[in-house]
From TrEMBL, chains A, B:
This is Archaeal seryl-tRNA synthetase-related sequence. It comes from Piscinibacter sakaiensis (Ideonella sakaiensis). Residues 152-307 form the Aminoacyl-transfer RNA synthetases class-II family profile domain. GO terms for molecular function: aminoacyl-tRNA ligase activity. Keywords: Aminoacyl-tRNA synthetase, Ligase. InterPro entries: aa-tRNA-synth_II, aa-tRNA-synth_II/BPL/LPL.
């Protein structure tokens, strides 16, 4: 492989190349772009590779829509911690006269959102959220393991190609006794690193924190790091010195299990943990490190993804 | 097959049976339920069956997120015609003090949505919408064909299992000369009927109309029917006398091509048409007509879906 060009990590040049190659389809929404057939094929191949690696674990696969009950988001503290990221869904509940006014304002280029009202739903911010209520009650011996692949929404518009408002995560969610859950998280951290290194990505893992809002959030972030509750696997994609997180591991302890009354087989409150691969980000990392033409990727990477 | 029970078309009993069989996972949102592994496998198998049938057409597959630019929805007249179905995405843009107030109101059980503001996006109401801008300009000889499978949102909460707020559509979008587009639509109408009858579903096709809002909408619906712009393929799923649409065909004439400057190879304004399979609805129709255990489905249906 020839040495990377000096602008190897220029995000604007990367985006331009992705669009020129038909991998990314521009839309008017920053971080809301479309995926061309080759991009989407790579994304699905990586997901299938993860699922083959995890096949013996026997995870139950559930599928949820990209919306979630407003009451869930309220009760989980998401509006306390990440208000800047939420997507609240509003619709029109009026009669004829209000509908005419709405239509008129749209045509006049005036603002019209005060004619809407909230619905019972918000956009799903994390693929695993709808899973926890499913676990309510007493778990079987050994706990449970579920996997989901869902569209997530975060309101953080950006022209930077790895920063999406709407993206897919493949997540695994483990629930059980605290020691079972922590051991599972530790084992997957090693497995995730090996899986991504096997695809030729120069990944590293590190303690991390969620993007909590504001001053109080800074303390939450410090506490999360001190307790080592969140790890990320990172790889340079758009900057050599600010690597991009492509996989993250969260140990929630009793955060979800307390709220939904999830008890381990012995009766004590269970722990939960999850890990998620950012499917678009992994795809972008592969394209950045192996080039925009998958036919020319290294033989071992191709063998893993085209088995 | 034994005769259907007297309550064969009781929607509440159907939903209860779907949940008991683990096919549907209840959530607090009406029409926002989760899909168990068997349901999702059937849905993906039907989609793969459609794609095999259409393989020789050489459609280009594009993938878009479940959000779309607000400006697109405004300019396409969706707020004039279907305001009652929209999902407008709102988020929080405030500073510390407003965030504290938001958090306090959430904890006090008070309404908090006036602390949000609109974003640049809305939920995607139809899988084909993001495709039309991609066609802008002069088409190649013979026009173009694209396929998408996207999550759509419609705000119509209901306990009835075929009425979903968030669901997937497999769509094909054809753009070209008016005669090419109409012939393609007619051919697919026959093909869609044959494909669904081949899966043992007692389907019929009929002229249809979209659910336009209000009194003015009634006239739009009559006009759409008179011009035979919309057809549906329907099958009884939750009522014998009110069959459910599981596939629909829309001939938009110049509605999209005029807005996005799409011209046929000869230079004249192109026409567009689309057809979409409602993937959850087809899956529910198969479960209703062949029973909740796919292992016991008729041999020819299994052969088609498990090739």
């Amino acid at each position: 492989m020839t040495a990377p060009a000096p602008d190897f990590y220029d995000p604007a040049a990367f985006m331009e190349a992705l669009v020129a190659a038909g991998l990314v389809i521009p839309t008017p929404v920053q971080g809301g772009w479309g995926r061309g057939p080759v991009f989407e094929d790579l994304l699905q191949r990586f997901d299938a590779h993860v699922m083959r690696e995890a096949a013996d674990d026997g995870a139950t696969e559930l599928t949820f829509p990209p919306i979630i009950a407003r009451t869930m988001i309220e009760s989980l503290g998401y509006l306390d911690n990440f208000p800047q990221l939420v997507g609240s869904i509003h619709s029109f509940f009026g009669k004829e006269a209000q509908a005419r006014e709405l239509s008129q304002r749209v045509h006049d280029g005036q603002r019209w959102e005060d004619l809407l009202d909230i619905t019972e739903s918000m956009l799903l911010p994390a693929a695993c959220y709808p899973v926890y209520p499913v676990f309510s009650g007493l778990l079987p011996e050994g706990g449970r393991l579920v996997t989901v692949k869902n569209w997530c929404y975060r309101h953080e518009p950006s022209a930077e190609p790895t920063r999406l408002q709407s993206f897919r995560m493949r997540e695994f969610i483990r629930v059980g006794r605290p020691d079972e859950v922590e051991a599972w998280r530790d084992a997957w951290l090693h497995r995730g690193l090996a899986l991504l290194r096997g695809l030729g990505l120069p990944v590293e893992s590190d303690v991390a924190n969620d993007p909590f809002f504001g001053r109080a959030g800074k303390m939450m972030a410090v506490s999360q790091r001190e307790q080592r509750l969140k790890f990320e696997i990172v790889v340079p994609v758009i900057a050599a010195d600010r690597p991009t997180a492509i996989c993250s591991f969260n140990w929630h302890q009793e955060h979800f299990s307390g709220k939904f009354g999830i008890r381990a087989a012995g009766g004590e409150t269970a722990h939960t943990a999850c890990l998620g691969f950012g499917l678009e980000r992994v795809t972008l990392a592969l394209l950045k490190h192996h080039g925009l033409d998958p036919a020319a990727w290294p033989a071992d990477v191709r063998q893993a993804l085209w088995p």
